[in-house]
Amino acid sequence: MSRPVFIQDYKRNQANVLTVGTFDGVHLGHQALIRNVVDLARKKSAPAVVVTFDPHPREVINPSSDSIRLLTTLTERASIMQDYGIDQMVVIPFTRDFSILTSDEFIREYIFRRIGVDKFVIGYDHHFGRDRKGSIYTLRKLAKELGFSIHVEKAHEVGHVTVSSTVIRRLLETEGDVSAAAEMLGRRYEVSGTIVKGDQRGRTIGFPTANLEPESSRKILPANGVYCVEAMLEGQMYSGMMNIGIRPTFEGEKKVVPEVHLFDFSRTVYGNRMKVRFNRRVRGEKKFNSVEALVAQLVRDREICRQFGNSTENL
Q1: What is the share, in percent, of the chain residues with pLDDT greater than 90?
Q2: 3-state class (DSSP) for residue 116
């Protein structure tokens, strides 16, 4: 699987072992489900399939509310799924018309008739269909009628907290706790994008930065502050630190800007793609009384990040 396939381009296979969900983040709970799909599929020499949706259902069902921000883009989800052994990620466009299908109609029309299923792996609390009325009990009834089997996956916990995309979003957006988010994701959080030209102010104070324009405006940026990061650029990994915020020390800044200062790096790389991996949060955003005070703090931030990198490089 090199990319997701939309349902209109998918060829039905009755032998499929599959699961269904949004899977934003592909966190540890999702991974447990996916491992079961892959293990069961391999035992049957059958395709391991994930059925997902785009856009996120909440964007369609509650369009007037604050738009949900994503832990993973569709492309990122497909790449992670492939790493875990999924053969195909089938995408159903989530529209207003689709949202009003009953759970019975969804399973019959989409899962059974258009995609095909022999074994359905489902999370213990998964609900689907209009008003989320479909449940394990709905699926058991339909499985008996249509001739497929089901496997129920239990909850996954980290530190007695049930892992969920909602919890991880809060950790990132509200607290900037990229370390706790990584524990639930099973990997460090990443943001990819293109390096764009900024106001070059960092260069004038000895801290040149690469301004990152994320590949999706729907992608979550951690809460404003300074972070120790690693950045993949031109096929090479660099250590650095990242500032996310409005740069309050300077007047007139309103837009949140993610910018990365790479250690021991001085080339101009506008237009290049960069992937940033968050290691830890150093501090929150702060307004300094002078540029000199800001520079002094940036020197301390850089030392913290260098020491963190040295302490983890052999892990």
Answers
A1: 68
A2: coil
